[in-house]
Predict the structure.
Amino acid sequence: MAPSLPDLVLDQARSLTHVAQNRLGRALRDRVAGEDAPAAARRIWQSQGPRWFTESDPIWIVNQDAAMFPGGITSLLLQSLHPGAMAGVAGHSGYKGDPWGRLQRTSHYLATVTFGTIEHAEEAIAHVRGIHERVRGKDHRGRPYRADDPHLLRWVHVAENWSFLAAHQAFSDRPLTPAEADTFVDQTRVSGELLGATDLPRTVAELEARIAAYRPELEASPAAREAAAFLLKEPPLPFSAKGGYALLAAGGVSLLPDWARSELGIPMPRLVRPLAQGAGRFGVAAVRWGMAGLDDDERLRHGHVS
């Protein structure tokens, strides 16, 4: 029997929806992981050899979830408050000239050390250590910094993982239990210590304490405020993508501690925060939907397919 008109209309609607979902997934994947994402995925996921973590580990759960998108924005803003870290980014990363390239390199690094073989993870870490050895200079107050300083590496580590965990707990469909959250913090030490950081936290309580211990060193340098404006006011995106990015950015900003937002001059009244977090949840759901629309052989799981 020939299909009815309503059935034909429904099939067409489903087909168009799948096309839109696949296009969104491809656009997200290409922005975050690069156009060679499928090849990178095959290397990460199909290479044979022992790995540090398994699918049931908290670090795996956090780093494959779409909540990493707003968490990454939180992380960049929080990390920028250390003048030495921000001076290194401003002076050596070229983030304004090639922001997507920098994001893609970071995304690939995180995917490799979380999901890849130990051999590939150690290669990635050694590569980054080599870069860090050459990055040094002075911050805006004339104080020397070097990217391989264990103290500075510890700040970058704790700020990043605090942000990823906060975003996961706020926006994920599967928040971690307190015990799992402690395990996540402990598991991030593996790559952090090999990168050169020392005295890294093992629990959420220790993570919070490390963040607090850095407070006397933190301030919004001119470069930090410039970076915040670039991330929040001038993102290098086509007009059609700016609305979705604004949702993720609102979620990311909502996670920052009050003192961090105040330093960066990003106002968010307490009554507005639930709305911003709601925007973040909506944005994460859209990312998750888009990435789920990729064909199986196209998926880079660090592209947050959950």
